[in-house]
Specification:
Number of strands: 9
Radius of gyration: 13 Å
Structural class: mainly beta
Helix content: under 10%
Order of helices and strands: EEEEEEEHEE
Length: about 110
């Protein structure tokens, strides 16, 4: 996954857990803990992270910083083809697949 600089991603969930490793760049993973408090985890090259099933989260990058993440999402059933991408299809915002929410996508 590539996050351009200045991204404040929409908070979302996934129907299965995710794991990732930061390949390049810097950013922040923001999530809501079970008590409802926002938590922030700084991401830098080599950091490995796990996002549990249905955990509300998002990623952010500062202006001038980019973030490249190698992500594992076990519910993928095919490779990416333009707008038909399992990472987008199985990203949920308020119970709606991000594949239907074009206004939240980054353009880079």
């Amino acid at each position: 996954l590539h996050f351009p600089g200045g991204v404040v991603q929409t908070r979302h969930t996934h129907p299965s857990g995710r794991a990732g490793m930061v390949a390049k760049g810097r950013g922040t993973c923001v999530w809501v803990d079970p008590a409802g408090a926002e938590q922030r985890y700084e991401l830098r090259p080599g950091v490995v992270f796990v996002i549990p099933t249905d955990l509300p989260h998002s990623f952010e990058t500062a202006k001038g910083d980019t973030l490249d993440v190698i992500a594992f999402h076990p519910d993928s059933d095919f490779g990416p083809t333009g707008d038909s991408h399992p990472m987008i299809n199985r990203t949920m915002v308020g119970g709606v697949s991000a594949s239907w929410l074009t206004d939240i996508r980054t353009s880079e």
